[in-house]
TrEMBL record:
PANTHER family: ECTOINE DIOXYGENASE, PHYTANOYL-COA DIOXYGENASE DOMAIN CONTAINING 1
SUPFAM superfamilies documented for this protein: Clavaminate synthase-like (SSF51197)
Range of residues in the leader sequence: none
Biological classification of the source: Bacteria, Bacillati, Cyanobacteriota, Cyanophyceae, Coleofasciculales
UniProt keyword annotations, A-Z: Dioxygenase, Oxidoreductase
Protein name in the entry: Phytanoyl-CoA dioxygenase family protein
Pfam families in the record: PhyH (PF05721)
Keyword Nucleotidyltransferase applies: no
Amino acid sequence: MKLTREQVEEYEVEGFLFIKELFPPDEMSLIRDQIPTVIADEAVGKVWEEDGKTLRTLYGIHFTNQIFRNLVRHPRLLQPGQQLFGNDLYVFRSKIVMKPAFTGGMWGWHQDSAFAQYYEEIPSPKGGNVILFLDEVNEFNSPVYYIAGSHKEGILEAANSSSTTNSSFTLAKETIAKFVDRGGIVAPKGAAGSVLFVHYDTLHGSVGNISPFERSNFVITYSCTEESALSHKKEKPPYLSTSDITPLLPLSENEVVRLLTNSD
């Protein structure tokens, strides 16, 4: 799937591109059917909310599940990613970010490029996220907030760069206020099957989900092989990143037809 020139220009200006209902309901139903299997898989990395009982994030999905492994090469996701992020892409990370009804926690304002810079020791990470809505995202169930145009100044200094926790990548309030004053806040909303393409440096975050509506996203983080410097000096679980930076190739038309009919 090729993006139009107007779509590419929108991404370059805003730092993200939103396409509603890129995957139809029948395909999304089959994708969602895989989630209980993924949750039960002991090889999948699991992060919990502060209560220790509510799942927050499932990492390494494409390593263990055939359908999600195929999705990272789906031409509706990979080909636009190649247009926007770079020709030679590998999956730096895959995850399902969960916002359970009533209990889903917040994520502070951050840039995903900071994670690649720290964990992979890539000085200037180049890439982005492709986010597939697994549920309807509405104004009530904690849509992700994005600051338009905030990708244009590269990686910004975090509020607490001396820490190595996820909260250390959160940006200072003054920085966020400055960027919001320039570009405003956008919260894309749409049906399951809608897709966001987001620049690595775009500032984003979300509030807690106090609504009765579930909200989960499948997130593929693509990095460019030419910017990679995978040294693996830092100890981390394999599901957080990969040593295989072989450039991905999109699935063929025949493979796409088989994508959601064979999960073996």
